[in-house]
Design brief:
The structure holds 2 protein chains of 2 kinds.
Chain A: H1 2-34, H2 39-53, H3 58-80, H4 88-127, H5 130-136, H6 141-178, H7 184-193, H8 197-223, H9 228-259
Helix pairs in contact in A: 2-6, 3-4, 3-6, 4-6, 4-7, 4-8, 4-9, 6-8, 8-9
Chain B: H1 2-28, E1 37-43, E2 54-57, E3 60-71, E4 75-82, E5 92-98, E6 105-111, H2 119-127, E7 135-139, H3 143-167, H4 170-234, H5 237-273, H6 282-311
Parallel strand pairs in B: 1-7, 2-6, 5-7
Antiparallel strand pairs in B: 1-4, 2-3, 3-4, 5-6
Helix pairs in contact in B: 5-6
The chains are: A mainly alpha, B alpha/beta.
Chain lengths: 266, 312
């Protein structure tokens, strides 16, 4: 009896803690949106953040996409051999890369790279009281530190994911031609068979939402960091975990809200 | 530093966006320069044809389906974008059909006179030929439709089979089994009877053979006898035999007369020597003696008859 009561109490306390965290997080998102009015403050920082978050992330995204394309082509040929025409390798690579793998894998990679970077940077500024100094100088830390990163994330994640899509498709096509003895027109036929512009739109919009989630999580965890280097490290770790959770939940959410009931063929 | 950032970010964004758009346009085979020409075809039903499906001319992909629109009076207009180099056959008609088992369709432009000899298809083409601005078209039944018909047939067969199963239940099977067993027993009985009859026939034919042999022997002896008779006839033995028989009969007749005479004498003698036992009168005496004589006569006559029979 006592154990059951304690279990129920544990569930209740965790639920309340999660609900209590919802409020500050929602307030933080509201502050970020509200700080958009101070364009002079955040606009100047945005391009720098776009380079750091986007352009500097291209190599890692391209690396992931390259191997994703290769492995996908090989997996597709392994699955289709003897049952389905081999040109469907192109179809599978195109659909999988554009709809799912390029956005999600790139998002997870950037969650580690970008999210942890933001959390560590802002956490260090918080524990070294640089954020307090900004406030003292009359700068809104959300407008000066958070919004440029969020805007850069929302703007550059689709670019990085788009580049990843191209790299993965090229890698898949090259693998099909070189290793699977599939001619490039056949691969292209498979790609064209069920290709829709919607596939690319869906992947890009999804990746923009991932960018927003990763930058918001990193900024929130970083600004709440405390307790020196340990706190900064904990903030970076939390950012990666929360970003990954947010990416997967958003992925499912987009699939349910946008893909469900939609026709696959053009 | 800031300008450096701007240039780099701008370059990356532009490159990625342009590359993406170009890739999409290439994959979609978009007509960027507007060099392709439009051809419209008129259909009652377009099946599972979708925008982007291939247009095939003489087995070569010569364009893409650009749009599918509903038209008045129950028609569907399919707009196709054809390559500038693609040349249409004379009297072109458009057939929509499945190009693979995986659901993708294609539009094939063929000559009207090379249409398959399908009356319904030709009728559909003729029906769609009324509009001069568009090519007449018809859609061939897809594999799905054919499969549905096949499924319907399979369902009917299953229904018939289930009815047969209902009619042909366990008891029917048992009866059939019993009937088969009976037929088997009947056939074995028939076989046995046939075998027995065959042996009887063998015996009969054997006996017949023996009888025939006996007859042959008899006929041979008759022949021998007749030969002998002939030879006997030729040597007057038979006449002599008959003459002998006649002489014997005369002798017997003579003997009979003698016996009668003897019997008469005997009666006379008897009447003289012994008194009458029955009556003292002469009449009774003669009556008693005459009865004895009658008896003797009867015996002699019997004997004579026997001799005559023997003679004949």
């Amino acid at each position: 009896m006592g154990i059951a009561v304690r279990a129920v109490e544990s569930i209740g306390s965790k639920t309340l803690r999660a609900l209590r965290a919802t409020g500050p997080n929602a307030r933080f998102v509201g502050d970020v949106l509200a700080s958009g009015r101070d364009a002079r403050t955040w606009l100047g920082q945005t391009m720098t953040q776009m380079r750091r978050l986007g352009v500097d992330s291209l190599p890692i995204a391209a690396f992931i996409a390259l191997f994703t394309g290769i492995v996908l082509a090989l997996l597709a040929s392994y699955s289709f051999t003897g049952a389905v025409p081999l040109y469907f390798v192109g179809t599978l690579v195109e659909k999988t890369v554009t709809l799912e793998l390029a956005p999600v894998l790139t998002g997870l990679a950037l969650a580690g790279r970008v999210g942890a970077n933001i959390a560590a940077e802002l956490g260090t500024m918080r524990v070294t009281e640089q954020v307090d100094a900004l406030e003292t100088l009359g700068y809104d830390p959300v407008s000066f530190l958070v919004l440029p990163r969020v805007v850069a994330g929302v703007a550059m994640f689709p670019v990085v994911v788009g580049a990843a899509m191209l790299v993965a498709m090229v890698a898949g096509g090259t693998t099909s031609v070189l290793l699977l003895h599939l001619s490039s027109p056949e691969f292209l036929k498979g790609v064209r068979l069920f290709f829709q512009v919607f596939d690319v739109e869906y992947g890009l919009v999804k990746s923009a939402s991932f960018g927003a989630a990763v930058t918001l999580a990193g900024s929130a965890c970083g600004l709440r960091a405390g307790g020196g280097a340990v706190g900064v490290g904990r903030a970076a770790t939390s950012t990666v975990v929360y970003s990954a959770i947010c990416i997967l939940v958003l992925d499912a959410l987009w699939a349910v809200t946008w893909l469900l009931g939609r026709e696959a063929a053009p | 530093m800031r300008r450096n950032n701007d240039a780099l970010v701008g370059a990356v964004v532009v490159i990625v966006v342009v590359a993406l758009v170009a890739a999409i346009a290439w994959v979609k085979q978009s007509d960027l320069g507007g060099t392709q020409r439009d051809v419209i075809a008129h259909f009652r039903d377009v099946g599972n044809t979708r925008v982007g499906n291939a247009v095939v001319i003489r087995g070569v992909v010569g364009g893409r389906i650009d749009a599918i629109e509903l038209a008045p009076d129950g028609w569907v207009d399919v707009r196709m974008k054809l390559d500038p180099a693609a040349r249409l056959p004379s009297e072109p008609v458009v057939l929509l059909s499945e190009s693979s088992l995986f659901g993708d369709w294609q539009a094939t432009i063929v000559e009207r006179r090379s249409l398959p000899s399908d009356a319904a298809l030709r009728e559909a083409i003729d029906d769609a030929s009324h509009d001069g601005r568009a090519l007449p078209g018809a859609s061939l039944p897809g594999i799905g439709k054919l499969t549905a018909v096949a499924g319907q047939i399979a369902g009917d067969v299953a229904s018939v089979a289930s009815r047969v199963g209902t009619a042909f239940d366990d008891s029917a099977a048992r009866e059939l089994r019993t009937s088969i067993r009976d037929v088997s027993e009947l056939s074995s009985t028939l076989r046995r009877v046939a075998r027995d009859h065959a042996s009887d026939l063998d015996t009969l034919s054997g006996q017949l053979r023996v009888a025939v042999a006996a007859l042959q022997r008899a006929s041979r002896s008759v022949e021998t006898t007749s030969g002998r008779i002939d030879s006997a006839t030729n040597s007057d033995e038979a006449r002599r035999l008959v003459q002998n028989f006649a002489a014997s009969a005369d002798e017997l007749r003579h003997a009979g007369a003698q016996v009668r005479d003897l019997a008469e004498r005997l009666r006379t003698t008897q009447a003289r020597r012994s008194p009458p036992t029955c009556a003292p009168t002469r009449r009774s005496t003669s009556r008693c003696g005459s009865s004895d004589l009658r008896e003797s006569r009867t015996r002699i006559r019997t004997f004579a008859d026997a001799c005559r029979g023997a003679h004949s």
